[in-house]
Amino acid sequence: MIGDSFEDAVERIVQRDSRFSARAYVFLRDALDFTIQRIMDNEKGEGRHVSGMELLEGFRDFAFEQFGPMASTVITEWGIKSGRNVGEMVFLLIEEQIFSKQPGDSLDDFNGMKNMRKVLLSPFEVQVTLE
Question: pTM to 2 decimals?
């Protein structure tokens, strides 16, 4: 697989597992870059491994930045319903040798954000109180 592009890997993944849109994988890659940059900015340029929860938080924040109130609609349209779905995509990219993992990494690291739609909608919900 050496020399294969990200796009080739995504095409292979989508052919064998069509749960998630190809666009979702591109967004995931960009969200990982966003998360790494944020960590490096916060830790004065130190690069390190990104945990599953850090990636989920970066994924969420990048979705807000890119899509605003439409984030929930776009992400769920791509087939992503939970943080675990993000983890499943990560591990499919690991199988294709596009992403890498540490020995202790697990799909269970992505069990946060069980309802991605709710997570992405909550900042935009309007609270109405009747007096």
Answer: 0.87
CB atoms within 10 A of CB 29: 16
Contact 129, 102 (CB under 8 A): no
pLDDT of residue 48: 75
Are 123 and 64 a contacting pair, CB within 8 Å?
Answer: yes
Residue 12 to residue 107: CA distance in whole angstroms: 21
**Cα dihedral sign, 8-102-53-44:** negative
Secondary structure (H, E, C), 1-38: CCCCCHHHHHHHHHHHCCCCCHHHHHHHHHHHHHHHHH
Residue 13 CA: distances (Å) to CA of 10, 31, 92, 118: 5, 19, 7, 27
Tens digits of residue pLDDT in 79-129: 999 999 999 999 999 999 999 999 999 999 999 889 888 889 888 876 667
CB 31 within 8 A of CB 87: no
Between CA 107 and CA 14 the distance in angstroms is 19
- Report the C-alpha dihedral over residues 47, 52, 57, 59, rounded to 10 degrees: 90
